[in-house]
Design brief:
Largest sheet: none
Distance between the termini: 12 Å
Number of strands: 0
Structural class: mainly alpha
Shape: globular
Radius of gyration: 18 Å
Order of helices and strands: HHHHHHHHHHHHHH
Number of domains: 1
Number of helices: 14
Strand content: under 5%
Length: 280
């Protein structure tokens, strides 16, 4: 394994564990956060591309724009998950995306799923059911809505993940991040003018810091590693983020770890680890 690429993904994952700490201390709606989170990287990296004389639409840009559209939807749902439920429950639901990658690969890339893989995916699904079983089925239940948003966000991320992996050799990682955020940076513009409450100074500082750190710095680490590691290796290293995020939730946000969360989370993490082991 490429040591530099490994350390790059590992560093990004450790920093990403701080995501919930930013989001939980911002008072504006998720769509306002999504605007800043996607617009700032788009502008900064757009200027970088202009300075380097790079075309904004080159290569297989229709596919990259499709991934960008999926990422815009994913980003909003990602933020909703963190806003509506605890950091611990949000991050466990969001990290079901490798399960979806495995399923999508069998359909899109025609990869055969063995009986053992079906068992492992069923184990992961059981973990989700265990965690959900604590929550009543109600659209008024914030935890239920947050966890559901996390699951759907994971699905959209898994699709965009496959697309970025298939195209990353053709672009500089800054270009990939530019495309990743482009559609969201435009799509969320109207909402920033109609949302309430209006961001205060603390919100602006936190949103800007979050957008720069999570939108540019972390994905520079991640896409650098993804260029030299295979997708399964990179995604497995990313699980360090779960440990960091859960620790942040417990230490700073007083998240409570129930038996259902612990058992269900272990089922999900164990199943994904087994899937990666089989694929390798």
């Amino acid at each position: 394994m490429n040591k530099k690429a490994f350390l790059s993904v590992l560093t990004g994952s450790i920093i990403a564990g701080l995501t919930g700490l930013f989001i939980k201390n911002i008072s504006v709606p998720a769509s306002s956060i999504a605007f800043v989170r996607t617009a700032l990287p788009t502008v900064v990296l757009g200027l970088w591309m202009f300075h380097r004389g790079l075309s904004f639409f080159r290569g297989n840009y229709p596919r990259m724009l499709l991934a960008s559209t999926l990422n815009a939807i994913r980003m909003y749902l990602f933020l909703v998950a963190y806003v509506y439920t605890t950091i611990t429950q949000a991050v466990i639901m969001l990290f079901t995306w490798p399960i979806f990658v495995n399923i999508i690969s069998s359909i899109w890339l025609k990869e055969k799923i063995s009986t053992r893989q079906v068992f492992i995916l069923a184990l992961a699904f059981l973990g989700i059911v265990i965690i959900y079983s604590e929550q009543p089925f109600s659209l008024d239940n914030r935890d239920f809505l947050g966890m559901s948003a996390g699951i759907v966000s994971a699905l959209f991320y898994s699709i965009s993940y496959v697309i970025y992996k298939s195209e990353i050799q053709n672009y500089h990682r800054n270009e990939v991040i530019f495309y990743q955020n482009l559609v969201g940076g435009v799509l969320f513009i109207p909402l920033i003018f109609i949302n309430t409450p209006v961001p205060n100074t603390q919100d602006i500082v936190l949103m800007s810091g979050y957008a720069f750190l999570m939108g540019i710095v972390i994905f520079n680490f991640f896409f650098y590693g993804l260029k030299y590691l295979n997708a399964s290796q990179a995604s497995l290293i990313n699980y360090v983020e779960i440990l960091g995020a859960v620790s942040v939730g417990i230490i700073f946000m007083n998240d409570k770890i129930t038996a259902n969360i612990l058992i269900g989370g272990l089922f999900i993490i164990s199943s994904i680890s087994m899937v990666r082991y089989i694929k390798n």
